[in-house]
């Protein structure tokens, strides 16, 4: 019975840069050069302007091989942001530099751009099962504007909330579907996603990859995060503030639109780790 259960587990996407990030960066760049540009790999979502998710920072990533990859991150202060650890090192591919893109609807043009290689991955980041997939980026000071703003880390009673049933916003820069390239309008995209219990998510991905510090959202209806959204924000609004509850981590290796959950690093689980670094 255990063997049967193991076989039923959904494969998770590993070695992000070679499987997703590098081809995604190339697609986004080509699309932004084209006139029919659209742009995101948030699936089942819609295009959004530069100021709609001002806490979203695009990451244009230079790997040690010289290849270009792409992720997202979330601004936490004028000098710190949080992303997925796999955006810096995915188990096979090592980043050399992040170019942070602030306040732009597009990834490869516009906005405020700052380069850094100051990235601290979680000490227990596991590239095999994607546990503790979180990292802090330190960069030179960037001021807040109407299109550049921070999100806050959960505090108080929110630290004890598992958010199951809550609707939250994910935002990122990737394709909009498994089959489409990047089509006709705008780079930055967003989607509403409903948080599910870890007990439900374990049924999809198993207990090695879905642990207490994982947060999942329902993929029902073919919505979710994918590819170029890695490292980006899952936020709720509470007390008039944008509160970060998840950092985009992984999905099914079979694609984004097959109804499988999307998985995130659960920010409440890492709140003390993050706060000690910002």
TrEMBL record:
Does the record's keyword annotation contain NAD?
no
Q: Which InterPro entries does the protein's record reference? A: Peptidase_S1, Peptidase_S1_PA, Peptidase_S1_PA_chymotrypsin, Peptidase_S1A, Trypsin_dom, TRYPSIN_HIS, TRYPSIN_SER
What does the UniProt keyword field contain?
A: Disulfide bond, Hydrolase, Protease, Serine protease
Q: Does the keyword Hydrolase apply?
A: yes
Q: Which GO terms describe its molecular function?
A: serine-type endopeptidase activity
Q: Name all Peptidase S1 domain ranges.
A: 42-278
Question: Which GO terms are recorded in the biological process aspect for this UniProt protein?
Answer: proteolysis
Query: Cross-referenced Pfam families, in alphabetical order?
Result: Trypsin (PF00089)
SMART domains reported in the protein's UniProt record: Tryp_SPc
> What family does this chain come from, according to its entry?
Belongs to the peptidase S1 family.
Quote the protein name from its UniProt record. Serine protease 13
Species: Mamestra configurata (bertha armyworm)
């Amino acid at each position: 019975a255990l063997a049967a259960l193991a076989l039923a587990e959904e494969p998770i996407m590993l070695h992000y840069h070679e499987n997703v990030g590098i081809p995604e960066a190339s697609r986004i760049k080509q699309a932004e050069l084209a006139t029919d540009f659209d742009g995101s790999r948030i699936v089942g979502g819609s295009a959004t302007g530069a100021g709609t998710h001002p806490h979203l920072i695009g990451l244009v990533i230079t790997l040690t091989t010289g290849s270009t990859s792409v992720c997202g991150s979330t601004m936490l202060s004028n000098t710190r942001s949080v992303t997925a650890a796999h955006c810096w090192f995915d188990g096979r591919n090592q980043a050399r530099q992040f170019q942070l893109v602030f306040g732009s609807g597009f990834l490869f043009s516009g906005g405020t751009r700052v380069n850094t290689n100051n990235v601290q991955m979680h000490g227990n980041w596991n590239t095999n099962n994607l546990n503790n997939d979180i990292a802090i980026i330190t960069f030179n000071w960037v001021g807040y504007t109407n299109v550049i703003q921070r999100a806050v880390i959960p505090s108080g009673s929110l630290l004890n909330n598992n958010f199951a049933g809550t609707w939250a916003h994910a935002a990122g820069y990737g394709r909009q579907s498994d089959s489409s390239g990047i089509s006709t309008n705008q780079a930055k995209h967003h989607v509403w996603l409903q948080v599910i219990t870890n007990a439900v998510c374990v049924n999809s991905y198993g207990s090695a990859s879905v642990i207490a510090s994982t947060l999942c959202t329902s993929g029902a209806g073919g919505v979710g995060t994918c590819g170029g959204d890695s490292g980006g924000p899952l936020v709720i609004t509470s007390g008039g503030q944008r509160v970060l509850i998840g950092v985009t981590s992984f999905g099914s290796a079979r694609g984004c639109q097959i109804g499988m959950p999307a998985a995130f690093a659960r920010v409440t689980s890492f709140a003390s780790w993050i706060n000690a670094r910002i």
